[in-house]
Amino acid sequence: MTTAPTLSVPTVDEAATPPPAAVSMPVHLVRVDSPIGRIEITADERAITSLAIERDGHLPHDDVAESSSTILESAAVQLAEYFAGERHDFDLPVNLAGTEFQRAVWAELARLKFGDVSSYGAIGLATGRPTAGRAVGGAIGANPVPIIIGCHRVLAANRKITGYSGGSGIPTKVWLLDHESIGHA
Question: Could you tell me the pTM of the whole model?
Answer without folding.
Answer: 0.85
